[in-house]
Amino acid sequence: MLRIHFTDADLARVQVTSRPDPLWETYFSLHRLQGRRNLRRYGQWHRTTRQALHEKGLTAAVREVLLPLYPRGSYIPDFLTPGAAAEGLQAGLEAILSAPRSRVQREIGMLARVGSVPSWTRRLADTETRGQLVETIRAYHDIALLPYRDLMQAHHDADRSLRARALLDDGTGGMLAGLGPCIRWLRPILEVDYPVDRDLHLRGRGLTLVPSYFCQGTPVALADPDLPPVLVYPLRHQDPDDGHTGAPGPPARLCALIGATRAAILRASATGATTGELARLAGVSAASATRHTTVLRNSGLLLSRRHGPSVLHTLTPAGTTLLNADGGR
Asked: At what angle do helices 149-177 and 317-327 cross, to 10 degrees?
């Protein structure tokens, strides 16, 4: 169990990252690559990525370099998931390169104490070896994650919409309570299912929440309690379909393509809307709105996630492209 202790100052400093963290996604995607669980969710990615890594001659590098550093156990070196990665892959890789030698040695030593690691990992304290690692991470990212960037961002945006609604409806505590089944808000403590027992005192530093597309199961926090506090949690990929007013009407060409009601629903979903809100906007019953959102979702244009008793709908990359392509002419 992980217990995160909040003060009132911490509650005022909770934030959700604006985009996927490329280095946390690297870590979790390597786990998904190793196993065959949840292939219904990741199956196409799993097959495509393994094939692409093989074709590019990177399978051995992933197996011999990355997997030993990103194990499935209870610890990974914090220097591999720096906060700078929130600004993008390049910033994150530069932070790995610039990590102090003493810190790298200490964290690799901790990794060796909880599991077996190759002898070469001790050389990561040297900048040259770390530079080779960085290029391997970059090559893996470009194959495994870059082609899915828009999809991950769409899921990330949908999750942020959920958190924003929870914050407006129920305050910070309500938002924290809704992060997932592994997380419980018992003010002033956030309890998180965790492989080890630990306490994290925020001490006024706040908490950065990082939704992750490839994370499964329990959330993850940085091991070093003195680093800026972070909690990475799994995105909700699937929810049953259940339904913003004042949006301008959809363009005529879009209406001709998918029908006026579905076009209006698609347009309103750009900023996130529940089934009930979509029904009021389109002038149809909730049952009719549910049928329309089901068609749009099955066509790859909408994402739907449960928010309390309602379901929140947001656009997929394909939905955004369709809306922008028509409206921009």
From this structure: 110
Identify the three-state secondary structure at position 247: coil
- Please name the residues in contact with 274: beta carbons below 8 A apart, sequence gap of 6 or more: 243, 307, 310, 311, 312, 313
> In what order do the strands lie in the sheet containing 198-201?
183-186, 189-192, 2-5, 198-201
Determine the Cα–Cα distance for residues 261 and 263; give it in Å rounded to an integer: 5
Choice between 320 and 56, residue whose per-residue pLDDT is larger: 56
Amino acid (one-letter) located at 167: L
Domain end, chosen from 185, 206, 234, is at 234
Tell me, yes or no, whether 247 lies in a domain. Answer: no
Give tens-digit pLDDT for 153-185.
Answer: 888 988 888 898 889 888 999 999 999 889 999
User: Which single residue is written with the structure tokens 């998918």?
Assistant: 258
211: which strand partners?
233
Total domain count, the chain: 3
Spatial CB neighbours of 323, under 8 Å, sequence gap ≥ 6 = 254, 266, 267, 270, 315
Whole-structure pTM value:
0.78
Check whether residue 128 and residue 274 sit in a common domain: no
Whether omega before 188 lies within 30 degrees of 0, making that bond cis, reads yes
